[in-house]
Amino acid sequence: MLLRQVDLAMYESKKNVRSYTLYTAALESSAADNLNIATRLKQAIAQQEFELWYQPPVDLTDGNVCGAEALIRWPQPDGNYIPPDKFIKIAEQSSQITQITEWVMNKAKEDIQRFTQANLNLCVHLNLSVKDLQCPLIVDKIKAIYSEDAGADHKLMLEVTESAMMTDVVKVKTTMQEIANTGLVFSIDDFGTGYSSLALLRDLPVSQIKIDRSFISDMVRNKDDLAIVKSTIYLAQHLGCNIVAEGVEDVQTSHLLKTLGCDYAQGYYFSKPLKIESFIHFAESYRSVGSLNVSKV
Asked: pLDDT by residue (tens digit) across 3-42?
């Protein structure tokens, strides 16, 4: 029992990059919960229990819905959902994450066809994990899924977090370039929270930068956050990238971002993540009046 408790504390220290962790009963409960989720994930992948929801980035120039970020959801029999930030971390500890990503790519391909049928010309954003970028088969999988529809790749953007790019710079750079050669484009997600160098930004095939919500949420009141946002917008513009602000929650932040020259915004102020039927209705309702309510932008 003592050795098991020591192991739990050790792994918790590694996970949080701490020199030591004091054992508590909560670690035991958390470990059992994680093991349960890991076991149930196998069934969820086999039976395709997941759902793909979408949140729209909005063009700050005209208020149009210009894209759809795919966000995975895992519904439970009781009507609740296991948070993605919980089960994705567990899946990343094994090959399960690459299986989940493959499901997401196939599902997104189907949904792109539904958007097309609804006359919605949207760029769909898919998130890749660090394990996906390290998978030697990722390029072949992308080619296999989208080779049948030559137009689908032009409606896709792959999002990679800044921290994921830094795990193995040489490998990630090679993989991203190989994927870019297939016609896909990349967006850097959560920008500002990692430690990427400007040289890396210059050399990687990136066409979009997404400013992390931690800098957006208080930029109206916090001059330091505002300075970071301004600098990131300037950097993106001069690198030839468009810029997205994540986590926009109010009209003041939206107006300020537009004034600063930010291209797109995403957040609950415009829309929370929606099931595809609701998303299509949302996008169609604003298209029917020409654009998203400009007073909101």
From this structure: 888 888 887 887 777 889 898 888 776 667 777 888 899 9
Which pTM does this prediction carry? 0.85
DSSP 150: T
CA-based torsion, 252, 257, 260, 261: positive or negative: negative
Q: Are 162 and 190 in contact (CB under 8 A)?
A: yes
Element (H, E) at 216: helix 213-216
d(CA 132, CA 123): 21
For the chain, give the longest Cα–Cα distance. Answer: 66
User: Please, are residues 76 and 40 in contact by the beta-carbon 8 Å criterion?
Assistant: no
Cite the beta strand spans of the chain per DSSP E.
Answer: 51-55, 58-59, 67-75, 81-82, 123-128, 156-161, 185-191, 206-211, 242-246, 264-266
> Which one-letter DSSP state was computed for residue 296?
G
Amino acid at 109: K
25, two tokens: 């009963």
In the three-class reduction of DSSP (H, G, I as helix; E, B as strand; rest coil), residue 274 is classed as: strand
Task: For the beta carbon of residue 119, count every other beta carbon within 10 angstroms.
Answer: 9
